[in-house]
Design a protein that fits this description.
Largest sheet: 4 strands, mixed
GO molecular function: agmatine deiminase activity; protein-arginine deiminase activity
CATH architecture: 5-stranded Propeller
Family: Belongs to the agmatine deiminase family.
Mean pLDDT: 95
Pfam family, one: PAD_porph
Number of helices: 11
Number of domains: 1
Distance between the termini: 29 Å
Low-confidence stretches: 1-10
Oligomer: single chain
Structural class: alpha/beta
Catalytic activity: agmatine + H2O = N-carbamoylputrescine + NH4(+)
Helix content: 25-40%
Enzyme class: hydrolase
Strand order of the largest sheet: 1-5-6-7
Strand content: 15-25%
């Protein structure tokens, strides 16, 4: 048997943490960022043209300090190549939609300089029990294709999980929500302790902080990346609402109580930085009318509230790319983030078109860490 092939198979069947791999924090150095190109007409209005312009702005901001790969279906390759600058790499990578955070790999690194990935199972945020579209067959193949392109090992995890459901500090701590990871439409047979063990085995984390639930009306069943994230070891950003009439008022206070009542894997108390909640923001009549309406996809109706959050930003090598969503709060949120990342430039990108699709900047990006 070929020795290299034998080693590859061993890596793919042994949990990565047992081999010394772990998931770095997003604020650690990157080699690249991966994105996908929007085109799905029941997610993105007017043939996705407004969303494509927003994706181009996000890609350009990130590409100032790291390589950006944009995966594109064949029928959109020429259009994407025309819209994206030459230094952004456009590759044919078929998908059902454009949420790379959730359908792409979770990268892990080794102290000896190796890069690998975790391949979670994906069921479109709930499968036939509340999932957002059907089918999701192309999405399920993305991780295997990226592993082939990069020539790296792929650890196939035994659970349904999306990248937006977790954040790590790179020092042994992971933050997530019970609403998502313990949802019956993901892994109904697993207990909280069993799921924590999977996270330890595949990401190398020692402590899991469980927040009760994610943002109000979040289509992903409460992804943590829309509510709370690590900005440094021992420090988190949390979406915050002061309106007692708003359902987010109770949600963010539940999260704050957990965060202030625990410590990270190193025993440090957590410092919480509150980011004001934009809006509330709702889908306008003309925005809903530009969508195709299909029985197999999640409905988007006029007046529906969107799960808007400034926490849904991307930490690039030299920048923080944040969504601009509400003129009443954009500058305040930007100033808070600049204070947390004094060595990076905070770049605001108009992101309502991404929000209309059900997520935001963090949801459409996936960092490839520098080993």
């Amino acid at each position: 048997m070929n020795v290299a092939l034998s080693k590859q198979r061993t890596l793919e069947t042994t949990p990565p943490a047992a081999l010394g791999f772990r998931m770095p924090a997003e604020f650690a150095p990157h080699d690249a960022c991966w994105m996908l190109w929007p085109q799905r007409p029941d997610t993105w209005r007017f043939g996705a043209k407004p969303a494509q312009r927003a994706f181009v702005e996000v890609a350009c901001a990130i590409a100032e300090s790291e390589t950006v790969f944009v995966g594109v279906n064949d029928d959109q390759f020429e259009n994407a190549r025309h819209q994206l600058p030459a230094h952004i790499r456009v590759v044919e990578l078929s998908s059902n939609d454009a949420w790379m955070r959730d359908v792409g790999p979770t990268f892990v690194t080794h102290a000896d300089g190796r890069l690998a990935m975790v391949d979670w199972d994906f069921n479109a945020w709930g499968g036939l029990d509340g999932g957002l579209y059907f089918p999701w067959d192309k999405d399920k193949r993305i991780r295997a294709k990226i592993a082939e392109m990069l020539g790296i090992p792929r650890f196939i995890a035994p659970v349904v999980l999306e990248g937006g459901a977790l954040h790590v500090d790179g020092e042994g701590t992971l933050i997530t929500t019970e609403e998502c990871l313990l949802n019956p439409n993901r892994n109904p047979e697993l207990t909280q302790q069993e799921m924590a063990q999977v996270l330890h085995d595949y990401l190398g984390v020692d402590k899991v902080i469980w927040l009760p639930r994610g943002c109000h009306r979040d289509e992903t069943d409460g992804h943590v990346d829309n509510l709370c994230c690590f900005v440094a070891p021992g420090q988190v950003a949390l979406s915050w609402c002061d309106d007692t009439r708003d359902p987010m008022h109770a949600i963010c206070r539940e999260a704050l109580a957990v965060l202030e009542g625990t410590s990270d894997a190193k025993g440090r108390p957590l410092t919480v930085h509150k980011l004001p909640q934009p809006g509330p923001l709702r889908i306008a009549e003309d925005e809903a009318s530009g969508l195709d309406h299909l029985d197999s996809s999640h409905p988007r109706r006029p007046g529906d509230r969107m799960a808007a959050s400034y926490v849904n930003f991307y930490i690039a090598n030299a920048a923080v790319v944040m969504p601009l969503l509400d003129p009443a709060h954009d500058e305040a949120a930007k100033a808070i983030l600049q204070g947390r990342f004094p060595d990076k430039r905070v770049i605001g990108v108009p992101a309502r078109e991404i929000l209309l699709g059900g997520g935001n900047i963090h949801c459409i990006t996936q960092q490839q860490p520098r080993p």
